[in-house]
Structure prediction request, 123 residues.
Amino acid sequence: MRIAVVDSHSDYDEIIKYFQKYLNTSLISFKLEHYETGELFLESATISSVDVVFIDVFIGETDTVDVTKKIRDKNPFCNIIFATMSKDFIYDSYDVNALYYLIKPFSYETFVKVMKLIEKNAN
Prediction:
């Protein structure tokens, strides 16, 4: 499973800890890719082949909702997870059929819940 995290370095470090812990208890394997901005992710060649995108709302110059719409257009089966400190974009997440909307800071237990949903969607 290919997972892209589109987030700043400070928040990325926390998410990485959760992924490492989850990897030790899960039967799935995954490859993580990090992008600091939505623009960098859109410029990458991985959009069409990524399975999951964890994305913060406040990254880069491009509107994150526009970024997620472009992700959805290029990869209709991608699981999009908003992971942000703001509740202001919850309704926008419906427009791109996001799988989940995480409010930071979130617990490891909540992270596991989201990963289980992702695994269920993959099967």
The chain has a mean pLDDT of 91. The radius of gyration is 13 Å.
